[in-house]
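Appendix B. One record, verbatim.
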Amino acid sequence: MFAFAVVCLLAIAAVSVGHHGTSTYDMEKEIQLTGTVKEWTFENPHSWLWLRVAAPQKTTEEWSIESAPPSYLSQRGWSASTLKTGESLTVLVSPLKGEPRRAILLEVKRASGEVLVVRPRGSFGRPAAIK
């Protein structure tokens, strides 16, 4: 019985450490990126946006942007078809600490001006750090 309890506690500890939330992101820094959607995945445990962003010397950088789980996003009106491949977007993100071109999604602004909020932190109505 004791061994079973120890195994259960270790399993719970492993799961809680494995799910980091936003601790690996610099949530004090907000970066605005403009690009086109390469891919949008709306699946557990987290949704992901891959965004092609114009870079110096006429090259393109690909950003991997983590978003919230589908259950969270669904409550805010998001779905698997919310973002379309090839769609032009401006996004507000917080970067992953120590890793270039990785971030967590805060807001999306469509070409039409519509703003989709993921995490109510920043706003396109105030200045953000420009990459």
